[in-house]
Amino acid sequence: MTSQETKPVVVIIPGAWHVPAHYAHLALKLNSAGYTVDCIESSCTSDEKDLPENTWTEDISIIRNAITLHTEAGRDVAVVMHSFGGMAGSEATCGLGKKENETSGRVVKLIYMTSFMLKEGQTRADFPDWPDIARVDDEQNPKSLVPLEPMHFFYSDVPEQMAQRAIDNLGGFPLSHVMNSPSKVAWREIPTAYIVCEDDRALTKDGQEQMINAVRAEGVEVETAYLKSAHSPFLSMPADTAKAIRGFLEKA
Length: 252
Prior knowledge:
The protein is α/β, with parallel strands linked by helices. Helix content is 30%, strand content 19%. The chain has one domain: Rossmann fold, CATH 3.40.50. The strands form 2 sheets. It has a 6-stranded parallel beta sheet with strand order 2-1-3-4-8-9, with helices on both faces. A 3-stranded antiparallel beta sheet has the order 5-6-7, with no helix packed on it. Helix 6 links the parallel strand 8 and strand 9. The longest helix has 17 residues.
C-alpha cells in the first residue's frame, strides 16, 4: 500500500479517559504521510453522572458505525487501538475484514498500541498482577473510575507542560465498562499487529508480551514493533509512533 489512493483510513480508538485531542500530534504525522485519520470519541469518555447503563454496547456500536461509514464508501480501514480501546475495538471490528460487495472497503489491519488484546470472555480482572491505575470516584460519581497518578502511569516521558494539558483533557470512564469483556475478537480473522511500549507503567512490557504470546499460542500471527516509550507514545514520540504504524501498513 504505497500510493495515496490505496492507503487505508486510519481509525483511532482512544484508551480509557482519553479523547481525540490526545492523538492530534499522531494524526498530524500520519496526515503528512498521506493518511486520512479518524479518531473516535466514544460514549464511555463522558464524566457525566447519567451515563448510559451499558456503555460497552453503545461504544461497540459507535466504533462499528464509524468504521463502516468508511468501508461502505469503498475505503479500506486500519484500526489503531490504544490501551482499553482494544477491548471494545476487538469486538466491534468482527466481521469487517471481508468486503461486503465489489465497491465496499474492509478492515485490513488491527494495530494494538500498548493495548488490551484479550481473548473472548477475558476482563482486566483476569490479570491481578498488573498494576492498579484507577479507583472508584466515591466523591463525585460512584458510577465512574478516576485514574490514579496519570502523570506517573500515562505521561512519565511526556514534556511536563504537554503532560499537564493531556491530564486537563482527560474525560471520564464508567465503572460498568470494565465489567464487560469481548464475546468475540477480530484478531482471529483480521491481520494483527502490536506496538509494544517498553517503558509503560500502566500496561507493562511484560503484560503486553503476555497478551501477544497468548494470541500467538492460538495460532494467530502478530507483527510487533517496539518503542522506548511509556503509555502515551502518541505524545512522547508521535513521529516514531506514526513510523511504526506506517511500517505495518506499507508492506507489500
